[in-house]
Amino acid sequence: MRSSQTAALLGQELAQKLKGTRVLVVGSGGIGCELLKNIVLAGFGEITLLDLDTIDLSNLNRQFLFRKKDVKQSKALVAAKTASAFNPSVKITPICANIKDSTFDAQWFAGFNIVMSALDNLDARRHINRMCLAAGIPLIESGTEGYFGQVQPIIQDRTECYECVPKPIQQRTYPVCTIRSTPSQPIHSIVWAKSYLLPQLFGEEENEAELDKAENDGENPNEIAILREEAQAWKQMRAALRSPNATAAKTVFEKAFRSDTQKLLGMDDMWQNRQRPVPLDFDKVAAGTFVLRGQEQVRPTTDMNGSSSNNHASGLRDQRSLTLPESLDLFVSSVERLSARLQRGEEIITFDKDDDDTLDFVTAASNLRSSVYNIPQKNRWDVKEMAGNIIPAIATTNAIIAGLIVLQALQILRGAYDSLVWPYLTAKQNKPITGSQLPPSNLACAACSDTYTVVRCDPSKVTLGELVEKVLEHTTSGEDGEGALEPSEVAVYEAGRLLADPDFESNLEKSLLDLGCERGKFISLVDEDERWNTLTIALCALPENEKSSQLLLSSSRPRLKPKFKVEPPTVVSMDVDRPALKRKYDPEETIVLDDEDGPVRKKVKPNGGPSSSPSKAQRLEEDGLVLLEDEETIVID
Amino acid sequence: MRNATVLVIRLRGVATEAIKNIVLAGIGKLIVLDDALVQPDDLAAGFFFRDEDVDAKRRVDAAKPHIQSLNPLVKVEVGHDLSILTNEEALNTLLKDVDLVCVTDLDQAAAIRVNNSARSQGKKFYCAGAFGLSGYVFCDLLEHQHVAAPKNPSKDGSKSRMEQYKTSYAPLSKALLHSWRDTTSAATKVLRPITVFSILACWEYQTQHSHAPSSPDALPELESLANRLLKKAQVRQKVCTSIPAEALSNLAQTAALEWSPSCAVLGGMLGQDILKALAAREPPMANFFFFDGQTCNGTVVRMAMEPAPNQGAPPGAIGNLPSSLNATAEPAVVEID
């Protein structure tokens, strides 16, 4: 039934091709669920879905393949089950694992016709990018941030790969459990304060109807009881804040920073490999006598002139780090101010970085939390920037992007490479979806300018020297196949590690395994004379029933290309400190990289991210984080 | 938004996606009306339907439990009576208790009737449809007000007030008569008139034949419709003199069909905009969105509406920067390519 519809829409040939296509979808979160649904309905024959995560309550309002009863189960498994009902003729194989696992070597990737990345972190994306280059299969990358998003088809030698342009804005994602229980960076505390504690106390009331329904549906009564107790505790706190109550701030403090922490400490497993958090004692902290990890947290004395910090200009005040008692003071003062506003009739108070009361609250609360977890403090000025940059995930953006991914996949399957575009969502009222031209690959890219080849072997049975020799024998160079590369002319690397070079050969006799070069890893052979580009070997497992001493090379011989040399840009930069590539992120802006050997390349870079000045991006990067991206964070409605 | 009642008429691919989006986000009540049984073709994009529902259950009955399971807190009601599409009194009665009505895959005449009723009752109106890989979304939000942070925050850093923005929307009947005469060539080009008029032609065809084009035989008529509409709209000749047959041949054959990925894009835009219209905190689109699934381009044409108030770019702005993250009211500046 569905297939005849697809054939009518796309033509018999393409419909058939679709049916025979094996797709790998990595990630089953916000984009992943939507993407899976589209692929299942669209007529793809075989789908493999990979995700290492389990379902959390906070996922349910965006990741529509999951229901309350699925919480704590594997995302991949549940998504596959739900989606297969949409089209029973499709084969879906869920895998609950980390894509960086060595099992998923380049050979495994080569088993697919196309890969779609629905991930949320830079590291995994880079990994998949390289694997797809090594396996020689098309990849479609994508990402979303608030209302923005983009889809990037990546085809070796035809388009840019994921690493062709450095990503100036570090994107991170935070699993909910990190925010709720095991934070380790200042941003985690800030997200917690802004997106969890503030709304919990001053935002919209939580609806208990869901718990009622869950109970009626016969779900685990113990778990429901615990959730109800929590809900009750917060309800009482909210009530206390909405009526004249001198001790409301203290009550909140004790719950958020003492009793909740004590509860978490009870879960021993969590702290096996992590530093244990320290519950705070309100009275002791206020008195300046609380001892935190061996250090007494005293109140600051006033300076020599007797003037207190309050007399400083607000700018300076903002940049000062607070001591623990000062954070407590700020917490109490901000809670009291917010509480007064509630009592004056404001029903809901949400975070606004220009609203002093909410900013004070988030500054104080996040720093108190950081103290609990032994995380560095942030001053108010930094908190303002970081909190202001947290972007709530928007489900419809994911839905739109997921649709665009499959539309591009269609063009790839058609072989219509000239029809491929780079669709991105813009803030322009008249052109919300723009399909821009794909930039060609960066010939000097560290990832895609390499020549890749797959080698299958048992790393314990093959020496590095053997590998290098056999592979180079198999390799040709240049147009006419002349000019070979000798083992004595290369330096051998695994990731950043130098394993061997013409002056240092002792490792060549060691087995790959002894050198930490196992399945899934890449070994790069770099031409010391810089005539040829780098040859990167993707180590893969031997097929079953193969003699373990074997070294299987790829059937097609890898061909090296003349090394592309990058001339420094002739554009003179007035600001020597600022690298030429880091600048305002504007979808319409073009960079001109003037290259003596190649054409002037005009590049449109629609990253779809919000604009931020380079220095700001740099500064925030130095702090460890800029923009929070979607997925597992606590979502603000 | 949490208390809003949304009425959706016709449950095909675009409606399915939009419903999923707004129910997940959480509205007060959803009413879905459709008189048809589940068709075999509905399985292509209708993930609320199962194989066994085909020819056995009504669309809305098959879908109801699945819609409900997306969000137990939303009230979901369904109905089989589409006589309201031709009975003005019944339609007005139905619309009384609704905040927003959204019709999908309806012919133009029916859409206009619903729009007019909605207008008379002061209710917001959306209509959308898919034609093959492409489609449209239109909205009439009457006199719409929304609140946003001002574009140019005060310099002294004082707490930024939220500002009220008001936009006057046009009914569908007027929008379809929009003249492009005053749109500059550059602005016309950006809006992609070939896509716009191809889709409008399909819609016109659907209205005349009570089904969208579905065979190569429809091409000549489709071509003539598209060009007639183009001419009538006085689109700048410099940009587009005619819609060539090649641009329409795919649509001629496939417009009656739908495909999940395109429905996802259309339903995503539709759902997103309904939520914006209900929440009144960010500017919804204004007012006609056209999506071309082949090239992945989506433009919004302002039809029969006043040009957006030009709030002017702050000094030093380069082109069109994406709006700040606490979404501001972005003026729909007519831009030069």
UniProtKB/TrEMBL annotation, chain A:
UniProt KW Zinc keyword: yes
Regions of compositional bias (Acidic residues) in chain numbering: 588-597
Pfam families in UniProt: ThiF, UBA_E1_SCCH
Domain THIF-type NAD/FAD binding fold: 5-418
Pathway per the UniProt entry: Protein modification; protein sumoylation
Binding locations of Zn(2+): 161, 164, 445, 448
Region (Disordered): 296-318, 583-624
GO biological process terms held by the UniProt record: protein sumoylation
Binding site for ATP: 27-32, 51, 59-62, 75, 120-125
GO CC annotation: cytoplasm; SUMO activating enzyme complex
Biased amino acid composition, Polar residues: 298-313
Residues the record marks as active site: 177
Matching InterPro entries: ThiF/MoeB/HesA (IPR045886), ThiF_NAD_FAD-bd (IPR000594), Ub-E1_IAD_1 (IPR042449), Ub_act_enz_dom_a_sf (IPR023318), Uba2 (IPR030661), UBA_E1_SCCH (IPR019572), Ubiquitin-activating_enz (IPR035985), UBQ-activ_enz_E1_Cys_AS (IPR033127)
Low complexity compositional bias, start-end: 606-616
Domain Ubiquitin-activating enzyme SCCH residues, every copy: 325-384
Keyword set, alphabetical order: ATP-binding, Metal-binding, Nucleotide-binding, Ubl conjugation pathway, Zinc
The keyword Transmembrane belongs to this UniProt entry's keyword annotation: no
PROSITE patterns xrefs: PROKAR_LIPOPROTEIN, UBIQUITIN_ACTIVAT_2
Description of how the protein assembles with itself and partners: Heterodimer.
Protein family according to the UniProt entry: Belongs to the ubiquitin-activating E1 family.
Name of the protein this chain belongs to: Ubiquitin-activating enzyme E1-like
Species in which this protein is naturally found: Serendipita vermifera MAFF 305830
UniProtKB/TrEMBL annotation, chain B:
Domain THIF-type NAD/FAD binding fold: 2-307
Assigned GO CC terms: cytoplasm; SUMO activating enzyme complex
GO molecular function: SUMO activating enzyme activity
Keyword Magnesium found: no
One protein family per Pfam: ThiF
UniProt-annotated location(s): Nucleus
Single GO biological process annotation from the record: protein sumoylation
Protein name listed in UniProt: Ubiquitin-like 1-activating enzyme E1A
